[in-house]
Amino acid sequence: MTKKDSSYDGESLTRSQHIIAVISLTTLCVSLDYILDSRGMFSLGAGTFGLLCGIILSDRLNIDPNTNKNWTNLILPLAIILLGFGLDINMVLTNQIGVAGLYTIIITIIAAFSCTLLISRILGIDRLEAFALGAGGAICGNSAVLAVAPSLRLSSKQTGSILAVINILGLATFLSVPLLASAIGFEPESAGIWAGSTVHAVPQAIAAGEAMGGDALSLASGTKLTRVLGLLIVVPAAIIYSSENGESGNKISSGISRIPLFLPGFILASILSSFLLPETIAQNIEHLGSLLMVPILILIGLSIRPRELLNVSKPIMIVGSLSTVCMMLASAIALVILM
User: Fold this and answer.
1) What is the pTM for the complete model shown?
2) Residue among 26, 8, 18, 12 at smallest CA distance from 298
3) What kind and span of H or E run contains 318?
4) 3-state SS, residue 213
5) Torsion over CA of 264, 267, 273 and 277, rounded to 10 degrees?
6) DSSP assignment, residue 94?
7) At what angle do helices 188-198 and 98-123 cross, to 10 degrees?
8) What is the pLDDT of residue 95?
9) Which of 86, 162, 289, 304 has the maximal Cβ count within 10 Å?
10) pLDDT tier at 94 (50, 70, 90 boundaries)?
């Protein structure tokens, strides 16, 4: 009896240490992001810092895979639902970004997805991984990948490798768009729409718009937030895409059984934020969701080893890089024609 209690206490102590470690890393990443932002310095974002910390410390903090998965499954649905409060359906209904912006977003999403799926098929990459990679590049980076991963039933290693590639490409896009927009000769309006339709993360898209001046900031923000609405389509699409082959009835049953529990809450949250809640309250709730994403990314980082990541990510990096170039090229051509 005493031996059993001792074993249980030891297990609880280990679990407590891991919880403290994740909370400490979350606090560190959020604080670092806040300090950099408050001083007007470039920041990768708290979530990206969290993913990097998790990968770097994965060999030292050897968390049990089942425990890691359980924690992620517990926090992720709540975080996704809270992020839904940051979506404003009125952005589309009131046409704040203009017809050119809306068409550019549609072209960008189609280009990103189609190129990712096509190149992945040529290189023999798993179709479900390709869908998650396409969602991350086409919609909103980390949030999109994490939103579709449960429906696609991706492992932590698969999700982690995709997130690593998405973050690297997101940083490259963020840094290159202002320079390329200037080289192409885009006016601030076109440059802002281009940033909003190509840069992965919302804060980075807004920062890119700010760097280009004029109306680029407001248009980058509006375009990016409108693009994020694609989550309302891409999450159900992931369920359909991942359904097993068979009779149509079986596909429907399979799809229904794989609907993530957060999807109805996510849709309801976006409706509430768009039509009922004051903007300030909705933004504060969405910010809480962003904070919850940090420990999730830390846990995903802790589930993979750096050496494994390098081996798995090479083909995904090739696909992501090529599809990002196609996406940027397609959106730039669309803006030249439409503007």
Assistant:
1) 0.74
2) 26
3) helix 306-338
4) coil
5) -30
6) T
7) 40
8) 60
9) 162
10) low
